[in-house]
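testing teh design pipeline on a random one, pls ignore if ur not involved
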């Protein structure tokens, strides 16, 4: 059992960490989230049919734990006078700068919109799967996705998105 769990974490841990980074908007919070969720998964690992989909089970734990952490933090959030230093676009290279712009824009979205976008487009889940994970209807997922995409279009620097689209040869402007 322990070897199977360790093998799962070794092969799929980075993927779930990337998902958590997009959900939380913060690398350190994402590491804490994944670590907490892996602990929860380990407690039930012996009951899971590991030939099926432990990824889906861990994804559900990630979303639910993130939601409960967000609610708890929202209730006790304290504004700070100074913001922490973050690397600027010049520190990351062109591709990294675009990725940083996307992460910053995602972090500014409401939690439900961010969750819908991350699960739909990063985790590549269907609307039905996202609805099941978020505990809402497919129509609600569609609404959160549409509103999130509209907000992302407003929040992302136009030249960053257009330049990246031209590099990739797509028609997005």
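output:
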């Amino acid at each position: 059992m322990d070897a199977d769990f360790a093998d799962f974490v070794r092969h799929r841990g980075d993927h779930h960490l990337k998902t958590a980074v997009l959900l939380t908007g913060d690398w350190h919070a994402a590491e804490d989230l994944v670590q907490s969720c892996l602990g929860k998964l380990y407690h039930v690992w012996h009951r899971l049919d590991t030939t099926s989909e432990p990824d889906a089970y861990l994804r559900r734990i990630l979303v639910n734990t993130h939601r409960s952490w967000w609610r708890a933090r929202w209730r006790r959030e304290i504004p700070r006078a100074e913001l922490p230093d973050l690397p600027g676009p010049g520190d990351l290279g062109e591709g990294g700068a675009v990725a940083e712009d996307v992460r910053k824009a995602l972090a500014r979205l409401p939690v439900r919109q961010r969750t819908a976008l991350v699960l739909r487009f990063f985790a590549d889940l269907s609307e039905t799967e996202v609805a099941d994970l978020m505990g809402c209807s497919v129509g609600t997922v569609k609404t959160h996705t549409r509103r999130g995409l509209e907000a992302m279009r407003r929040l992302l620097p136009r030249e960053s998105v257009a330049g990246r689209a031209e590099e990739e040869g797509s028609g997005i402007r």
